[in-house]
């Protein structure tokens, strides 16, 4: 009975969040939460100090945060971190977001258009010759995961502003993402890119997440469209080699070969694809009223906390922590966001404890100066710092803050 009440409460909160906010002279409407204990206060202080540092990397002209060139999908995640802080009750984040959200919406989209809709992490961009036209949406490009990150960022922006333009942008991005459905390895899965060179689970898990989140926010006459897509995405993905379920472990693996349709070199995959899937399954459970999706999210969360941690702190598997490359520094924060949303829907003390261990380790062992955060949450701090590992670590602190309140 107690778990059912938690689930119903989460359903009510999700429905309220999906409603457009009442217009006012203040563009962002957020509920101020009473602080429960000094530990919650501490996490808020740490998150707000880190926000000050994050904004030093913000480029007002491009609407992006400086990370790894061209700072595209990472900036979508930084924007999501900022909005999560607003929703958790940070007055400082609210003040920043009042300016940053509308500026990023205009400036980042314009930047993408100027770049010919070809933005991607530097290694891929160097070899890219993508001639695909993406004129309908300034946030579209040749990569389905990039569009998923921005769709989630604009859904979150809609949640705190009630601005329907942001929701419409997410819907347009999802419509573009549906063109990646169906690969040579599966009729029920996603391509990673429009050139069909790679199959990676992050495209699948983001596709499910965006669809499920939209289902909980669009008008009633559209809900079934997105809910049906989310169900199809899960049914296809759980049958693919990229998802492992059995023997007490449930998790997302790495990508599969386009030529052989077999798994790649990293059998355990990465934290972020698991985090996106947890978030998507929580939203799908709310959209459909089916708690089986919620239970699957719990199984994934417990597996990742076990197999992707060191000393009880989240750690990216098979990654050189001192030299993590240009993508991995963003990953862990995505999992913590998913865990935070799962805890909100169906609280478990082990999730709060895990988040607190991560947040404490980030601040005590992975910090340079007042509030500059690096990629290795177990420490020591490794630089050079930028907005990608920094905002990811902020996700860990914000998750602990919200779960502690």
From TrEMBL:
<dbReference type="InterPro" id="IPR053169">
    <property type="entry name" value="MUG_Protein"/>
</dbReference>
<dbReference type="GO" id="GO:0016787">
    <property type="term" value="F:hydrolase activity"/>
</dbReference>
<dbReference type="Pfam" id="PF03663">
    <property type="entry name" value="Glyco_hydro_76"/>
</dbReference>
<keyword id="KW-0732">Signal</keyword>
<feature type="signal peptide">
    <location>
        <begin position="1"/>
        <end position="25"/>
    </location>
</feature>
<protein>
    <submittedName>
        <fullName>Glycoside hydrolase family 76 protein</fullName>
    </submittedName>
</protein>
<dbReference type="InterPro" id="IPR008928">
    <property type="entry name" value="6-hairpin_glycosidase_sf"/>
</dbReference>
<keyword id="KW-0378">Hydrolase</keyword>
<dbReference type="InterPro" id="IPR005198">
    <property type="entry name" value="Glyco_hydro_76"/>
</dbReference>
């Amino acid at each position: 009975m107690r778990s059912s009440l938690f689930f119903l409460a989460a359903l009510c909160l999700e429905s309220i969040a999906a409603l457009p906010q009442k217009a006012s002279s203040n563009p962002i409407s957020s509920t101020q939460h009473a602080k429960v204990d000094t530990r919650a206060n501490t996490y808020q202080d740490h998150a707000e100090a880190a926000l000050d540092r994050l904004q030093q990397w913000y480029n007002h002209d491009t609407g992006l945060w400086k990370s790894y060139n061209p700072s595209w999908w990472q900036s979508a995640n930084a924007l999501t971190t900022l909005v999560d802080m607003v929703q958790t009750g940070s007055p400082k984040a609210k003040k920043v977001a009042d300016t940053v959200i509308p500026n990023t919406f205009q400036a980042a989209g314009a930047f993408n258009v100027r770049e010919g809709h070809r933005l991607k992490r530097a290694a891929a961009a160097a070899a890219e010759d993508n001639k695909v036209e993406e004129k309908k949406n300034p946030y579209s490009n040749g990569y389905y995961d990039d569009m998923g990150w921005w769709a989630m960022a604009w859904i979150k922006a809609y949640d705190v502003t009630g601005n329907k333009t942001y929701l419409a942008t997410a819907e347009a991005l999802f419509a573009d993402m549906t063109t990646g459905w169906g690969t040579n390895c599966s009729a029920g899965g996603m391509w990673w890119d429009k050139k069909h060179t790679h199959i990676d689970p992050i495209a699948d898990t983001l596709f499910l997440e965006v669809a499920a989140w939209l289902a909980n926010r669009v008008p009633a006459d559209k809900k079934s469209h997105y809910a049906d897509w989310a169900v199809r995405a899960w049914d296809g993905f759980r049958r693919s080699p990229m998802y492992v379920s059995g023997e007490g472990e449930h998790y997302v693996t790495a990508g599969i070969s386009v030529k052989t349709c077999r798994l790649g070199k990293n059998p355990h995959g990465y934290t972020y694809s698991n985090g996106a899937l947890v978030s998507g399954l929580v939203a799908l459970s709310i959209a459909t009223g089916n708690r089986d999706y919620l239970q699957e999210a719990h199984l994934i969360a417990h597996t990742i906390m076990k197999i992707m941690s060191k000393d009880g702190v989240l750690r990216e598997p098979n990654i050189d922590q001192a030299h993590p490359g240009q993508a991995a520094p963003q990953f862990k924060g995505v999992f913590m966001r998913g865990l935070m949303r799962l805890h909100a829907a169906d609280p478990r003390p082990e999730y709060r404890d895990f988040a607190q261990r991560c947040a404490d380790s980030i601040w005590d062992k992975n910090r340079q100066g007042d509030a500059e955060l690096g990629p290795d949450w177990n420490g020591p701090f490794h630089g050079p710092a930028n907005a990608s590992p920094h905002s990811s670590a902020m996700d860990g602190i914000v998750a602990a803050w919200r779960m502690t309140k």
